Amino acid sequence: LESWVTEGVDRLDRITTAMSRTFFGVVDSGAVQMAGPRRPRRLSHPEPTLHKIKALLSARNQFTYRYESSVTNVRTVMRLAPNHHYGRQRRIDIRWHMEPAADYRHYLDAFGNLVWQMDHLRVEKEITCTVEMRVETEASYGTEGQLALQGTSPQETDCSVEASEFMRLTPLVDRSEKLARMAQRLRDKGETTADLAEAILHQVHAVLRYERGRTHIGTTASEAVTLGAGVCQDYTHVMLSLCRLAGLPARYVSGLLPGEGQMHAWVEVLLPIGPDKVLAWVGFDPTHQRRCDERYVTVAIGRDYQDIAPTSGYYEGKAQSSLEMAVSVSMESHGPAERWSTSQGQAPTPLSAQDEQQQ
User: Fold this and answer.
1) Mean of all residue pLDDT scores within the chain
2) What dihedral do alpha carbons 160, 163, 165, 170 form, nearest 10°?
3) What pTM did the predictor assign?
4) 91 in the Ramachandran plot: left (φ > 0), alpha (ψ -120 to 50) or beta?
5) Residues with Cβ within 8 Å of residue 227, at least 6 apart in sequence
6) What is the pLDDT at residue 10?
7) N or C: which end of the chain has fewer CB within 10 A?
8) 131 φ, ψ to 5°?
């Protein structure tokens, strides 16, 4: 097979060279070497040895909507759990319970996100919902323990939105003169797209400090960079703005990370990776100033926060409402893929379809 592939590559090279000479007057300085034996291309540019690490994470998300008085025709929309598969990520099982019980349906939106829609005709005081799940993730590392540049192929998701849509600015991912100057300065360095994304990651971490209470869910990227402070949502919006202004398609990610105590947010940038420069969505966490590894669980993707709010909805009535949410994430198992198991014995067993319904 190796000889056949090598011979085929040689023939294509000779055909390309002949066409260049005939139609464009191009002379290949290496054409004299074509007739002699050549080493296979894969040996002249060997791929680095990578080691796969897998993790099994358990997550519990509980939220409560409280109302000052009874309300009617309440619709709650939730994006709290990932789809079954997302690249190297696999949802093993899921259980959820809502009180009071609701009429519900689930579907995938245009971004491939799992959406639950809950409807109540009347709610007296509050709605409480608990979602529990286990998710298996994977990441690759080099021989010296460094995280490899890796991502999720567009073909490995159910997203039907074109990459060009993630180049557009939005009400939350906006433009200001300060952001435009930053993006231009970073782009002018002439680095590769991967290096540019890495430089933007560090730039965002340099201009923002993590501080609760200074921003809200409607804070824009330009407002956050002017304040110089914010939370993970703001870090993400600022990085999205710089990426898009610098010419990189980038999208918002809502997900889970151990130790956060709440939903986390980060960025995926579309980059060419590997020897073949295959396009993939690579995760960057500007809040923690690092690329995403096997500890990160992707729940939903979108253009900005408004596309992937974990909970949203509406109701009829004059009562004011409030929301409380608590998230816990823990790692059940972690280690090399070749000896992967949840208890150093067997791989995790998913629940049956019946178990995945409301408990």
Assistant:
1) 85
2) 120
3) 0.81
4) beta
5) 214, 215
6) 52
7) N
8) -125, 125
Q: What is the pLDDT of residues 117-154, one digit of tens each?
A: 999 999 999 999 999 999 999 999 988 889 999 999 99
**Rounded distance, CA 198 to CA 192, Å?**
10
**For residue 19, what is the enclosing H or E element?**
helix 2-19
Cα–Cα distance, 315 to 301 (Å, whole number): 26
Please tell me the distance from the alpha carbon of residue 299 to that of residue 321, in angstroms, as a whole number.
Answer: 25
- DSSP assignment of 227-251 equals HTEE-HHHHHHHHHHHHHHTT--EE
**Tokens 């073949």 correspond to what residue?**
276
Backbone angles phi, psi at 80, to 5 degrees: -115, -10
8 A C-beta contact, residue 251 and residue 157 = no
Average pLDDT score over residue span 51-72: 95
Per the structure block, which two tokens stand in for 270? Answer: 């579309």
100 prior amide bond cis, ω within 30? yes
CA atoms within 13 A on the CB side of 282: 27
